Amino acid sequence: MPRPLLVTADPSILDDLLRLAATAGVEVDVAHDLPAARRCWNAAPLVVLGPDLVDRCSAARLGRRGRVVVLGQDLDDATIWQRAVQVGAEHVVFLPDGERWLVDALADAVEGTGSDGLLVAVIGGRGGAGATTLSVALAQSAVRRSLRTLLVDGDPLGGGIDLVLGGEESLGLRWPELGATRGRVPAAALAEALPLLQDLSVLSWDRGEPAHLPAEAVQAVLAAARRTRDLVVVDLPRSFDDASREVLTSATTTLLVVPAEVRATAAAARVAGRTGLLCRDLRLVVRGPAPDGLTAAAVERALGLPLAGQARAEPGLELALERGEVPGRRHRSPLGRLCEQLLDDLVTDDQRRVA
């Protein structure tokens, strides 16, 4: 893959640029002179010119191209703008003020700047509603469609979503190791560091004591995931903390899972009230009904939420989970059919990108 090109013969400027490239998690090519710059000029997704070689590149007529950035050194040097125009640059950046912009530009040059993937949050209307089961099944269904998918455990007090997939011993990053994350996270590095369970990338908790997860860390990790994933599914607890609020405010769609029971519907009304204040698109998923339960339509009327789908009663599901079977693997089961329907409704043609 072509890499961003840094063009400078100044060691101090090069040190700064290499530091920023490392922050972006990007490998770069370096040209110390015009012949080296010419070799990579057209193929590089981004060119960053040091002020020491701007005039020489302009005189050499390397060819007009997009995504050229000139690095300025002196804010009082009005000529830098004219020199940048002559070389065909789109931007002039001064350090250190422009460091964050340049880091993002370097990362975008490698990762691309396409639309973010879907972020779907799943939350239970009451304890044991089946939010984790639906989260895993939805992610499994997405993988069957060749959608690049990440499953995220947002409940530090849960049993660990990796346990549902039989991957609690798998090597890879967990949330406690990402708690100090800030700023832009290299998406490729994140993807490589996460466990791959049942052909699915998973971010879960470890077996240690629950740790506080700052909203800034959640924001940075999810933003990185969405740059390279078609779908991110987050299993959320019913108790809201900073991390949960960050997920809900960022989510494309939130699914509220409610068993078709009177008490469950009453409990879900309180959860829906709090959740609806944070998310842009809250939809209802009904499980059941049990023989003496409510209909999906009755739950929909009681909660005043649009019905995204209904999972019919599935005898043996709980026993299968206890045996270690992964929910959603059987796509013709009631749960599997529900997930297929949800994906049909949630995933647009533009987001059906094959991995």
Describe the structure.
It is built from 14 helices and 13 strands. It has 355 residues and is an alpha/beta fold. It has 2 domains: 5-111, Rossmann fold (3-Layer(aba) Sandwich); 118-351, 3-Layer(aba) Sandwich (Rossmann fold), CATH 3.40.50.300. Strands 8-9-7-10-6-11-12-13 form an 8-stranded mixed beta sheet, sandwiched between helices. Helix 1 (11-24) packs across helix 5 (99-111), helix 3 runs parallel beside helix 4 (79-87) and helix 9 (215-228) runs parallel beside helix 10.
Which helices and strands occur, and which strands form pairs?
Blueprint (H helix, E strand, L loop, with lengths): L4 E3 L3 H14 L4 E3 L2 H7 L6 E3 L4 H7 L7 E5 L6 H9 L3 E4 L4 H13 L6 E7 L6 H14 L4 E5 L7 H4 L22 H7 L2 E2 L2 E4 L11 H14 L2 E6 L5 H9 L2 E7 L2 H15 L5 E6 L8 H8 L3 E5 L5 H6 L11 H13 L9
Parallel strand pairs: 1-2, 1-3, 3-4, 4-5, 6-10, 6-11, 7-9, 7-10, 11-12, 12-13
Antiparallel strand pairs: 8-9
Helix pairs in contact: 1-5, 3-4, 6-14, 8-9, 9-10
Mean pLDDT: 88
Q: What count of domains describes the coordinates?
A: 2
The helicity comes to 25-40%
CATH topology category name of the largest domain: Rossmann fold
Strand sequence of the main sheet, in spatial order?
A: 8-9-7-10-6-11-12-13
Q: What kind of sheet is the major sheet?
A: 8 strands, mixed
CATH class of the largest domain: Alpha Beta
What CATH architecture of the largest domain would you give?
3-Layer(aba) Sandwich
Shape: elongated
Low-pLDDT ranges: none
Radius of gyration: 25 Å
Q: Treating each run of at least 4 consecutive H or I residues as one helix, how many helices?
A: 14
The secondary-structure element order is EHEHEHEHEHEHEHHEEHEHEHEHEHH
Structural class: alpha/beta
Number of β-strand runs:
13
- The CATH homologous superfamily name of the largest domain equals P-loop containing nucleotide triphosphate hydrolases
Strand composition percent: 15-25%
Distance between the termini: 17 Å
